[in-house]
Amino acid sequence: MTSLDKIEDARVRAFATDVIGQLPFVPNEDQLNFVIALTQFLMFSSEQSLMLLSGYAGTGKTSLTGAIVKALAQAGIKCVLLAPTGRAAHVFGEYSGHAAFTIHRKIYRQQGYGSTAFTLAENKHTRTLFIVDEASMISNTLGDSVASFGSGRLLEDLLAYVYNGKGCRLLMMGDDAQLPPVGQVESPALNDGYLQALGFTVYHKYLREVARQSLESGILCNATIVRQSMEEGMASEPALQLDGMDDIQPLSSEFLLETISDCYDRDGMNETIVITRSNKRANLFNQGIRNTILYREDLLVSGDLLLVSKNNYYWSEEYEEIDFIANGDVARVVRVWGETESIYGLQFANVTLAFPDHGDIEVDAKIVLDCLMSDAPALIRVQSEQLYNEVMSELPGDKRSKYRELKKHPYFNALQVKFAYAVTCHKAQGGQWANVLIDMGGIMPEAKLTIDYHRWLYTAITRARQRVYLINYQPEENR
């Protein structure tokens, strides 16, 4: 007799059976227990309760989510799919077969036309299950967005929004082996104690069993090795298994550019990413790729891929499809308009950008060129202060009037962007690419025994759908 046969409530048994019927495989015990627990959560949980699903790579979380969404639709139960970033929402929507939105787009509304402040929206949904993917990325600390989005605490705002709706519930899913939000040691959205302290009853299920067929993949096999090393205390660096693996392999610098070029030719630039440890190293890779592979001599040309490095609310005002341009959004240069402008100690260009994770919507904007080649993630403090002071000195009126005009100033609100051929792992988190090249060079042996390194490597490996290349990988025995 299976766990499902032991369920006395016919409604629970019927819905759980529907979910299982949508799966392309026979569920293991972890998967079955989650389906049963989710069904009971939907039918019997108290109003101040939520559910967490922690699932490692290769444990079937993607397939389960697709099955749940289909079963909910058949049962007439409404659901809303959310993710922390545009790229994560795009990936979530693809594998679930259901439209997905960013958390910010769903739960906040602009205070007024032209305002850079967003307040918590009213949840008009009733009896709806909100499913959030990549929950490990959700922060609850006050950041530079405190003056812009609700309370400034994204997790608490998400909870407030969902549970202000009549009969609404929340399921948050994530992988607690991945990197936590920047500056935090663990992910608050996957922490039972943290959520209980906020007044919620927490139902937490885990997917720990990696499917046998998943371990036949070199990518998932080695992700599992890194994760198990974490669980065993990181006494030594992860002993990756690369022999006989077609989808994960070491790559020396000698063949790096040739391999990147092959990836571009085979799958395209949008399906290839270099993941590295710092903005400085990402900058070096970006320059090398543009100069040596793409043969781009001009600072910026049509077709360049850019990564937004700071939230921007100014250039999206005219476009209903996008509320704001977010830190981490990827854009493709469609056109560069006119000549470069030198003003306020900086260089600017007028461009048309397409955002692939937002339906390829095209946005006309002014960008700061100085960020492109900088080792810093965005404008450094002295540059930001000079821009602010020089713009403010030109604006008429008293200080209050100047602040009002500052929000409308195209140069002060210019997009800050980097090239997007190589990125840090935090910037890559939530996305997936056919080809992922991981920069393993320059990492000190002692650093490889830390939780930060293990999470970084695990997160980087699991960004790949088809192939991983470990650049300058040196196993311990070869050093």
Largest sheet: 6 strands, parallel
Query: What proportion of the residues is helical, as a percent range?
Result: 25-40%
Spans of at least 5 consecutive residues whose pLDDT stays below 50 are: none
How much strand? 15-25%
Please explain how this structure is put together:
With 479 residues, the chain is of the alpha/beta class. 33% of the residues lie in helices and 23% in strands. It has 15 helices and 18 strands. The strands form four sheets. Strands 3-2-6-7-1-8 form a six-stranded parallel sheet, with helices on both faces. Strands 9-18-17-10-16 form a five-stranded parallel sheet, sandwiched between helices. A five-stranded mixed β-barrel has the order 11-12-13-14-15. A hairpin with a 5-residue loop joins β13 and β14. α1 packs across α2 (29-44) and α9 (218-231) runs antiparallel to α15 (451-461). The protein is globular. The termini are far apart.
Short note summarizing the structure:
Helix content is 33%, strand content 23%.
Summarize the topology.
Layout: H1 10-22, H2 29-44, E1 49-55, H3 61-75, E2 78-83, H4 86-96, E3 100-102, H5 103-107, E4 108-110, E5 118-120, E6 128-132, H6 154-163, E7 169-174, H7 192-197, E8 201-207, H8 212-215, H9 218-231, E9 248-251, H10 256-267, E10 272-276, H11 279-293, E11 305-308, E12 330-343, E13 346-355, E14 361-368, H12 381-394, H13 399-406, E15 415-419, E16 422-424, H14 425-428, E17 433-439, H15 451-461, E18 464-471
Parallel strand pairs: 1-7, 1-8, 2-3, 2-6, 6-7, 9-18, 10-16, 10-17, 14-15, 17-18
Antiparallel strand pairs: 4-5, 11-12, 11-15, 12-13, 13-14
